[in-house]
Design a protein that fits this description.
- The complex is a heterodimer.
- By secondary structure, chain A is α+β, with helices and mostly antiparallel strands.
- Among the domains of chain A are: 135 residues, Flavocytochrome C3, Chain A, domain 1, CATH 3.90.700; 132 residues, Fumarate reductase/succinate dehydrogenase flavoprotein-like, C-terminal domain (Methane Monooxygenase Hydroxylase, Chain G, domain 1, Up-down Bundle).
- Chain A has 16 helices and 23 strands.
- In chain A, a hairpin with a 2-residue loop joins β8 and β9.
- The longest helix of chain A has 25 residues.
- Chain B contains eight helices and seven strands; from the N terminus they run ββαβββββααααααα.
- Chain B is α+β, with helices and mostly antiparallel strands.
- Classes of the chains: A alpha+beta, B alpha+beta.
Chain lengths: 657, 253
Amino acid sequence: MSKPKQETKTRTGTRTMEFVASLDSKQPSGPIEQRWDKHRFEMKLVNPANRRRYTVIVVGSGLAGGAAAATLGEQGYNVKCFCYQDSPRRAHSIAAQGGINAAKNYRNDGDSIYRLFYDTVKGGDFRARESNVYRLAQVSVNIIDQCVAQGVPFAREYGGYLDNRSFGGAQVSRTFYARGQTGQQLLLGAYQALERQIAAGSVKMFSRTEMLDLVVVDGRARGIITRDMVTGKIERHVADAVVLATGGYGNVFYLSTNAKGCNTTAIWRAHRKGAFFGNPCFTQIHPTCIPVTGDHQSKLTLMSESLRNDGRIWVPKKKGDSRPASQIPEGERDYYLEERYPSFGNLVPRDVASRNAKHVCDQGRGVGSSGLGVYLDFADSIKRLGKPKIVERYGNLFDMYAQITGEDPYETPMRIYPAIHYTMGGLWVDYNLMSTIPGLFVAGEANFSDHGANRLGASALMQGLADGYFVLPYTIANFLAQIKPGGLDTSDAAFAQAEAEVAGRTQKLLKLKGEHTVDSFHRELGKIMWDECGMARNEAGLRKALKRIPELRSEFWENVRVPGEGGELNQELEKAGRVADFLELGELMCMDALTRAESCGGHFREESQTEDGEALRDDENCAFVSAWAFTGNLSKPELHKEPLEFEYVKPSQRSYK
Amino acid sequence: MKLTLKVWRQKNGSTPGELKTYPADHVSPDMSFLEMLDEVNQALIMQGEDPIAFDHDCREGICGMCSLMINGVAHGPKEAITTCQLHMRSFKDGETITIEPWRAKPFPIIKDLVVDRESFDRIIQAGGFISASTGSAPDGNAIPVAKPDADKSMDAAACIGCGACAAACPNGSAMLFTAAKVAHLGHLPQGQAERHQRVVNMVATQDAEGFGNCTNIGECAAVCPKEISLDTIAMLNRDLVIAALKGIEPVVK
């Protein structure tokens, strides 16, 4: 196992502790079923009377951050929570539609913790750490209990018990849901628990506040530098531990299903301060989004995956066939998923469905004015089940589609196209969810763990809440129990230096007064990323991107125009800082995609495919987590590898034929 | 499409604001309302002017961040959607559109169309939760919830906290927002233990924040993008009366 060169020592109180940045995953040994229990017993505890002396910073207030902040507050720690929105209730977890998986086996249909673990490791195409995934499946059952107790209005059956559905091609019904707003309801549960702690005084909330840097003192994460987005004031916050739960970085592609404000700044700044970045190229592309309509497009809207249960996907057989769908006879339609994957048909996993849509559009058979779209047709289902049944199942989605496109999907087939949806990569963390910087924990989509190279539907909500409610409260306690609280204030030189760097960067952006807007750079970066590091990647394209991105970055720093001043609400300045970081991250993603010379999950390298065009893994050479260290030179990061071992789920080729 | 926009511009909370006129000449009917504003802002930036500040995030109608008064109607002319879901095909070529921020005393203006809605968070802090610390929950199926109750609870829980209700109310009342939370939790067995203390605390906080009283006008429900029903307010009032009969006093921190 490779280790970084630098070792840091720090003196905390009377003890000298050695913090070594390493890729030790700290997985417990023994039978997988007992690892988390064993670890929980072995971890150290903080006496309830001492907890208020420890300060924990939580950045982000979504499912992972909100749940962690609320739970740490309940336990008596002194918590400071930060979000960029005007209220913690608005974090992007709120937009998740489908549901949350849990191995409750309430359906008596053969589900178990082991099966959820197995499905998640396999679904992730064997690029996740087994111990972490098993723990996730284990605590999934506690999550449902907790959410019910908080008043999350999950769907019920007439007997009053919890309803489930099958989701994303799973063979068991293990998905709990609250209409098409499961993310919203789970987030409101966490938000309400958080507001309760704010009222109790254990959590102090900083909304409309953005983290712009991490402060590392003697090798340990000791605080953050923030900007108050209303007054522009740059502020210092000191703590004994820092949690980043700041979500994914899909907006590096400019167009994605993420909220407009989602960004990489918190984790990217931490990366620059020494946190390794895990599997940056692993992104998930969701097959059922509404296609782009023009250059004005600011974001993409996801249509729930459940539509594929009753919709049939097709394109015309002929290239450039511009007839309306209704005038294309049955014999001239290509139901390409049903044709190619007879056993799974339209329900193939997200990565497979997305790649095939790209493939037919690349052949010139795409539909809609842009040619980047495929039909999702409900005519047969309406004939078979009747329109009322379709209204009952998908009414809100059909309305949303009609609202956005101005077309009636009951009459003409929907047009869909894949879009960036989720990033499996993120900061590298060990079993305790601690990064390579001691005292810096990373949770939810912001970390790399649990989903491997492809995330299963309804598993993001599960991971966010698992990390926040049931993992971090234990592992942070274990960390805090080994250090003395406090011993540092914001007058420390490291804070002054970090603040000066942030202020300098802000001033530099404001002074440029260049010729192009922030959005124009972001769009161009997004196009490069989508073309060369999107649904399919190859060496030539990635090398092209690796040449172009640093050029674009220099152009940005010479010629971006950021209006206004720093001491006020300045939304262009906020965007500029985020795009500057995306311009650095994009390069690392391409480098990671180039280094991983295999196809796995959402990462499809054209050079590595089977004879019939399916993704081909290389377990001999690529069964590792890539963990990139920042070296000071953006184009020369250092790659470390955490080898992955599969003791329980033996790697096999995924097949959906 | 070519449109004329009259937009409320205000540098900050302590400076007076005014409506300013801007042309929007390259509007596609496929654009969302916020994408139209994006385009106007790109042009303003290139002309060396300060772009229009407005709140937005998810742009799919669920986060509750967007908040515009469009031609005097909260979230614009279409029913049951947020501003971000409104598309320009709902307007006519040549039309003049007036865009203003939410106006209610407890929503002070921060800049242009951006207002401070933390008063809503403080109403939730007063009791908009079930006190169930992590780890204390019984099995999920140990608390059966009749389907009609779960459905009513979910109807109310759909509130996105955008503030359109208070902005549309001639009294500047937050009653629909508060009632949505009271109904969400009050329809569930888990919410019964704190039911009456909750409603008393939340209403007291709503009053203390400076929101007006409810006089059953119904503007709130008419503009609500999530179609929260006025029935929730009836439920709140009923709970409030029972709480009064029980002699429950507000406990406000």
